[in-house]
Design a protein that fits this description.
By secondary structure, the protein is an alpha+beta fold. The chain has helices at 41-45, 61-72, 74-79, 92-106, 121-125, 165-181, 203-212; strands at 2-4, 10-13, 16-19, 29-34, 37-40, 49-54, 82-88, 114-116, 140-145, 151-157, 195-197, 217-219, 222-225. The protein has 7 helices and 13 strands.
Length: 227
């Protein structure tokens, strides 16, 4: 296992880098074994979005429903140029056996790799071990990493609450649209809804917006439009 602590602040724990990955920073690089073979993260990430997500353990009920949920939406992720990458502190052999059982139980095919993080290296690197919850299992963390290797969003869930795969896809849609159109998305936005026009940056721009009376503006700083 090798890693590169290029994520800003970190400390050494158990001779590995314990990082606090922050939005807008480069995702820490690493090499690790998976059920698809050994990967180098920067190569896996190159040219694609990556959703790196951790689960507490194989052969557990909530995690099983999450994996089947991800598997059912794999084509939706592929359409958006998104790769899935799972992680838990279990062996490759455990991953293989558990995934085979999920595929049989739910009649799905799980195509994405899962990291075997037996030494906690990647879990510490991406702040997935929260000692107040467990020192031997990763919590349910998701990091959204763009094709340039930048961490764009992160979510952490309690052990007993399964993640909403549709919300994860909505997050990807929103971030990709923001990048493409230079806009923002309002609360509860769904694809097809109106979007927010960025607010003026100067007093002159604010006055101009008021005088021009843009449709969809409730105030000088609050304007929406359809795409």
């Amino acid at each position: 296992m090798t890693q590169n602590c290029n994520c800003g602040e970190y400390e050494e724990i158990m001779n590995v880098c314990a990082c606090c990955p922050r939005l807008g920073e480069t995702a820490p690089d690493f090499e690790a074994d998976t059920n698809h073979g050994r990967i180098k993260f920067s190569e896996f990430n190159k040219g694609s979005w990556v959703i790196l997500f951790s689960h507490p353990a194989d052969f557990t009920p909530v995690c099983t429903t999450e994996f089947s949920g991800f598997a059912l939406k794999q084509e939706e992720f592929e359409k958006r140029n998104v790769k899935l990458l799972g992680l838990s502190i279990d062996s490759v052999y455990s991953h293989i056996a558990w995934i085979k059982q999920i595929e049989e139980l739910y009649e799905v095919k799980i195509k994405f790799p899962v990291i075997a993080d037996l030494g906690f290296e990647v879990s510490h690197l991406y702040n997935m071990i929260h000692p107040a919850i467990s020192e031997v299992h990763a919590v349910r963390t998701i990091h959204f990493i763009d094709p340039h290797g930048i961490i764009r969003a992160s979510m952490t869930f309690p052990m007993g609450v399964g993640r909403n795969v549709d919300e994860i896809i909505r997050m990807v849609d929103a971030m990709q649209l923001v990048d493409k159109e230079n806009i923002a998305t309002p609360a509860n936005w769904r694809p097809g809804d109106e979007v927010i026009i960025p607010p003026p940056k100067t007093s002159q721009e604010a006055d101009q917006r008021v005088h021009e009376g843009h449709a969809g503006c409730k105030s000088w700083f609050m304007c929406k439009k359809s795409l």
